[in-house]
Design brief:
Number of strands: 3
Mean pLDDT: 89
Order of helices and strands: HEEEH
Distance between the termini: 40 Å
Radius of gyration: 14 Å
Number of helices: 2
Largest sheet: 3 strands, mixed
Structural class: alpha+beta
Shape: globular
Length: about 70
Amino acid sequence: CSLAERTGLEVLEPKYQGNWTDDETITIQFERDGSSFAIEDYGRQAPPEFHAFRSLFDELIEQQAWLPVGE
């Protein structure tokens, strides 16, 4: 059982968007066993499941020691 399945992301719509301009777009893409699906959110209109997963991912990124590449 993948994390996307356990969090309910696989049943969400592929795209959510507000009806305004100049906001951020967040895309989360999953790949598994040769198939993939993506969810795009413009203006934070996606359901809470999407944002909970995004927050978890953001926390993981912040815990990493990032190093410059190719200098």
